[in-house]
Amino acid sequence: MVKQVIDGKAYNTETARCLATVDLMGYRTDGRGRFTTNTPKKVGTTSLYETRDGAYFLVRDYDRGAGFYPEFDLVGQFRIHDHGVIPLKRKEALGWAESKGLDFDKVEEMFGKIAEARDQEGAILLRLPQTLKLTIEKSAAVAGVSTNTWLMRCAERAIASEREQKENPGSGGSVR
Fold first, then answer.
1. Alpha-carbon distance 96 to 100, whole Å?
2. Among residues 66, 4, 80, 78, which one has the least CA distance to residue 29?
3. Would you call 105 helix, strand, or coil by DSSP?
4. Which domain holds residue 11?
């Protein structure tokens, strides 16, 4: 279990959802820090987590005193060598997943529908009554996805249903 506060925000592996864990490879070093082998060996793990509020973070877990120099994790244009908790933005977390070669279905499971190459990402500010907001957040948590992913999937289903109704006007049912 890892708990850490960074910039006034809590990162807790017990309450966050682990999205993926990969082996952290490294090279044996001598007392002066020089590499003594060209073949990497597993020295720990790197895990990607999503908090209940939809924030992402990495946990790099390895024994710093074991005489190994761990390989870096690539996050966007940054190379991360640090041990412990590393907060990430969604785009950085997605970039990490891509850099680890996780399969497409796993990435979509973690981040929701991935935009086609031509799609642009956009943002909408949606003002909701507090009770509806809490109900949506609870439904997303029960589904095991972020609130944003849950709302995006609801919108996609509503649009698909509306299109189907337009294509088959006598099929019954209504869209509200």
1. 6
2. 66
3. helix
4. 3-111
